[in-house]
Every structure is written in C-alpha cells, then in structure tokens.
Amino acid sequence: MNLRYMTKELYYQKRRTLMSIFGLSTGIALLIVLNSLSLAYRQAAHVPLKEIGADITVQRSGDVPKDLAGAVFPCSAVTIRKEEVEKIQKLPGVRGIGTGLLLWVFDPNRAWIVLGIEKENSIGPSLLRSSVTEGRFLEDGKPEALVEQAYARQFGIRLNDAISVADKKFPVVGFVDASRAAKIAIANVYLPLKEAEDLAASSKGLQSVSPYEPGDVNLLFIKADQEKITDLASEMKGILGNKATVATPDSFLKLLGSLFALSDKFTLAASLIAIIIAVLIAFKTMAGNIAERAREIGVLKAVGWTNRNVVYQLMLESVIQCFIAGILGLLIALVASFGLSFMKVNIPIPWEMSPTPHFLPGGGDQIFKTLRLPVHVPWNLAFFAVLLSIIIGGLTGGLLGRHISKIKPSEVLRHE
Amino acid sequence: MDLSKKYGDLEVVKGVSLSIDAGEFVCLVGKSGCGKTTLLSLLSGLEKPTRGRVILNGKEINGASEDELALFRRENVGFIFQSFNLIPTLAAWENVALPLFPLKMTNEERHLRAMELLGKMDLGHRIKHLPSALSGGEKQRVAIARALINNPKIIFADEPTGNLDSSTGEAIMGILNKLHRDEGVAILMVTHEVELAKAANRLIRMKDGEVVS
Question: Where are the domains of chain A?
C-alpha cells in the first residue's frame, strides 16, 4: 500500500472522489440524523414523567361521583389500597415510590382541585418545592396550603389568607407556579398528604363511590430500573387489575404519534434504506472509477505488483474515501441535529393524568408539555457511523479490488 | 521452446522456439497481427502459453502462479510499451518508482533511485511533472527509466517508438542501444519497422504466428 499513490489518485480524480464521498456522506448523515431524531423523541417522551421525578405513574379509574359535592375522587383516580402500594414497592426493579392524593372539592361557592403531597420525597409532586414563587413550602405537621399562582390571582387569594376547603381552614403559606411545574397531577391547592387523607376519609360522597381509609392514595409515582419499566408496568397492572392506568415513557411516545416515535423498526428500516442507497452510489462510483483504471491496474501488475498489492492499494483508497465520507456525514449530521434541536414538540398529557372537571373553565382543554426536541448526536452513534463507513470502504475496495486484480495485464496493455 | 498460444480456435503463436542470450539485443519484426506482441507477452510472463515452456533467467515460469509471475517480473524484467502506460496521476519520478512501491523501502530511497535514472534520461528537470505535461519522447524516457529501476536482466519493448515522430523515435532507439551496450541489458524489441531493427544483434521475423527467419 502506498499513501502517496493513494493521495494523488484521490486528488486528481476529484470528480469521482467527491461524488463517492458525497454519496456516502449523505447516507451516513441520514443514518445519524434519523437515529438522533428517534432518540430525541424517546428522550422527550421521558420528560413529562421525569419532571415529576418518576419513570412510571399509576392510577386506577373508577366510577364517576354521583353527587359533585364536598371532596370526591376524579373518576380517573380512585383508591389504591395501602397493601397494594406495599406490593408494588416490593417488586424487583422498583427503586423508589412517591404518593399523592388528588381530590376534587366542591364547596358551595368554589371548586378546588386539591393535591395532597408528601413533603419530603424526591419522587412525585413534592418536587413542587422548587416551583414556590412566593412564601414557603409546606412544613411538617402543619395544616397549611400552597396555592397555584394563577388561581390565587384569579380569585384574589393572598399570602397568609386562610382558605376554606371542605369546611376546613388552611392558611396559605406560599404560591407555586404551575407553568414551571410538572404537567401531571396539576392542582389549585396543595396540602400535606395527611390533611388530604383526612378530607377524603371524612367525605361520605367519596366513600360511597370508592371506599377509602387513611394510608390509601390515588396517585403513585415510581422510580424504576430503566430496563425493567415495561415488565414492571404489566406487573403493576396485574396487582391493580384491569382498571389500572400505568403511564410509562413508552405510552407518551405513542401519544407523540411521530413515525420516529412510533417504531424503532421504522428508524431501522429508514436507516438501512439510507445506507443501502449511499453504499450503492459509492459502490457504483468506485466501480466506475476502478473499471476506468483497468489499464493502470494492468501496468501495476506488469511491473511486478501482486494481486494482493493491487487489492490493498484499492482498499486503502476506498477506506480513506469512505472514512472522509463518514467524517463529513457526521459533520452534516451535527449541523442538521443542531438545526433540528430548535424544533418544538408538544407532548399531550392525557386528561386522566391531570383531571379537571369539564365544566370548569379550561377543564376540557388538552394539556401539553411543550419542549425543544432534545436532538443530539451521541458519541457511540457517531463512532458507529464512522466505523460503518470504514467497513463499507473496506468491503467495497476489497470486493472491487479482488475483481479487477484478476485482469490479465497482457489483455489491457495491448497497444492501440 | 515450442511455444503456442491459442485464443479459442485461433492459434496466434504456433510452435515458436527461440533463445536470447544475456546482454543480447533481439528484434522481433513482422506485420501487424502476426503474433509478435503475443509472443512477447508469453516470453515475459504476462501471458501463459497454451503449449510449450518459457525459461527466463534459468527459471521455468510456466507453472508459476499469477503472484509468483508478478514477483518474478519485479525482479528480472522491465517493460516499455508503445503507449507509454504511465500512471496519469503520478509525477514522473513516481511513475519511475512505481515498481518499488510494494517494496519495503523509504520514500526517500525510491526518490533517489528514480532521480538517478531520470538524470540518465536527461529528465532531471521534469521529475515533478505529470505525464500530461510531458512530450511523447519524454514520456517514453520516463517509461524506460521505470523499466530500469529494478535492474532487470531483460527489457521487453513493445513498439517503443510506435507513437513517436521519427526523430524522437531515433532518440529513444539511441537510449536503448546505449543501455544494451553500456549496461549489458538484454533487450527484446517488437517492431514492424525493419529500419529500427537494424540496431539489434539479431533479427527474428514472424509471419502468421511462426518464426520464419
């Protein structure tokens, strides 16, 4: 193999070299961009749950409250028994669990969406601590409330006011900005879990639809081993029965509806097609180039180059061309990914996961989590793409080289 | 000895026997299509005979594989072609050094050896030029330098002046004569011009695939 010869061949055969490089680099760029997009949609699908510190959320749907008075459970989130929570906690792969109690409270003059939250838990709505815009977060053992900022503004609720929820007074100790918080289990009022449990336990209307005891909850937020999420989802459904609603990143991915999000197989098939087309372009260009060089190969053989010498030389040319194509493809993909990362994606949050009475203003509106698509090129994908281009170069050069090295010098060197 | 070459039913070389001594200058003449180039290909190991044996530098090359033949040519044989057959993307010195590319040696060594030969061909000022920038005579002189780079025992020249005007052709013949005379290299030259063949020690005439005199 001779580097000088290879360099000059690629340099002086610019048109063919560039065609071959651009053909393959387009395919490599497509491969990287398609896979980066697919990955970005997958990562985006994790965001709604990640914002609430969970990998899985669990609810159970039940009957619609007969009478919308006092505290009731939304029909999408009825009682999950304490024993069921304990069973779920023991499942292998569950790394942590957060709980919540979501209530609709219909007082004579006002309707509240109330969420009872644990005060200290890195999983679940207690992450609201970082969304407090005024006042402070809930403190241990105190019957106090946080109010959503926009709701407080709408109804003129001020800090240190006492609000009455289901005939119980709670001082407002802080405001939270729901637009900065997770879009799952959005409420107007946030109470300590214990207080929400008391409201639920003492509500006859609620008990008549979905029997409840203190310690039970209706929202579970679960942190789990990533590779076990799918299996855990089906095990949880097994524990809670067929009315369980188990949300995972995969379920959000399906809601996104994009082709990239819908199927790994689509991404794989599209990547394969891109690569095959690119390889064919590169192969055809190189084959044309090598066929044109039959006389040159004849000269090489006549002056003492062995078949192996010829094959290695052509392989070197092909590998270097394809390596350059791989790097160029990677650069194109990086630029394209940067451009695509400005694209916004709206992830719909199912009504069931953040239920609001339909008759309240905005109650029937679809909630979306809007975010910039986190498109980036992971280093292992970049490495794979460049490696793939080198392998393509090696195979193409090797195959074409083997074929052309079989020519007889006497056949191609006969004078005109 | 008793060399024959058939392409399908067509026998191009028919039972030719000849020998060339070390340092001898032999010219193979005959009309176009009489089998001269095929015989040259058989004798140089570029082509395998249908029948007969070729012994070159004391070694029978008939049974050798393609790669063995290539290595044999690298060590013993030099070629000069009518259409020069230089690699268009390589500079003059690189074309001269082409047979050395597969050998384990530094680029500097190759360069020095090529420079020395190009100097002998009065092309010291054209070493970095591409073939497209060289005249026909210069191209052929580069090709001669390439044929000499491996210190061959014999040079096979196929119509070396065929693409050149008469004065350039004479100059090339002068170089070949000088090589034969001063370096003692054996030369087998194919030509259809009997005038050129006068420079040779021996003349072999071919007609319809057979040696006639």
Answer: 3-47+259-413, 56-247
Residue B185, number of CB atoms within 10 A of its CB:
21
Q: Nearest 5°: phi and psi at B23?
A: 75, 5
Q: How many CB atoms within 10 Å of residue A276? A: 11
Cα gap A345→A172, rounded to integer Å = 35
Q: What span, in angstroms and rounded, lies between the C-alpha atoms of A45 and A260?
A: 12
Report yes or no: B84 at the A interface, CB cutoff 8 Å. Answer: no
The CA distances from residue B156 to A30, A32, A302, B40, B120, in Å, are: 53, 54, 11, 7, 19
Q: Which of helix, strand or coil describes residue A167?
A: coil
CB nearest B71 (choices: A306, A408, A415): A306
CATH number, domain with residue B28:
3.40.50.300
Q: Is residue B157 part of a domain?
A: yes
Nearest CA in chain A to B95: A5
pLDDT at position A258 is 63
* ipTM, 2 dp: 0.90
The verdict on A296 touching B (C-beta cutoff 8 Å) is yes
* pTM beyond cutoff 0.90: no
Name the band, by pLDDT with cuts 50, 70 and 90, for residue A324: very high
Give a yes or no: residue B194 inside a domain.
yes
* CA nearest to A231, candidates A218, A219, A244, A248: A248
User: Hey, are the CB atoms on A295 and B75 less than 8 Å from each other?
Assistant: no
Q: How many domains does chain B have?
A: 1
**Is B125 contained in some domain?**
no
Q: Which residues in chain A are contacts of B67 at CB distance < 8 A? A: 306-308
Q: Do B67 and A9 touch (CB under 8 A)?
A: no
DSSP track, B51-114: BS--EETTEE-TT--HHHHHHHHHHHEEEE-TT----TTS-HHHHHHGGGTTSS--HHHHHHHH
CB pairs under 8 A between A and B: 85
Cβ-based contacts of A302 with chain B (< 8 Å): 46, 73, 79, 85
Q: Which residue range(s) make up the domain with B68?
A: 3-87+137-211
Residues of A in contact with B80 (CB under 8 A): none
d(CA A21, CA A321): 6
Domain annotation covers residue B102: no
Q: Does B148 touch chain A (CB under 8 A)?
A: no
Give the range among A172-181, A301-310, B193-202 with minimum mean pLDDT: B193-202
pLDDT category of residue A416 using cuts at 50, 70 and 90: very low
Q: Best mutation site among A1, A303, A405, A407 for testing chain B: the one with the most B CBs within 10 Å?
A: A303
Query: Could you tell me which residues come within 8 angstroms of residue A87 by beta carbon, excluding any fewer than 6 positions away?
Result: A239
Residues of chain A with Cβ-Cβ distance to B70 below 8 Å are 301, 304-307, 309
Cβ distance of A295 and B85 shorter than 8 Å: yes
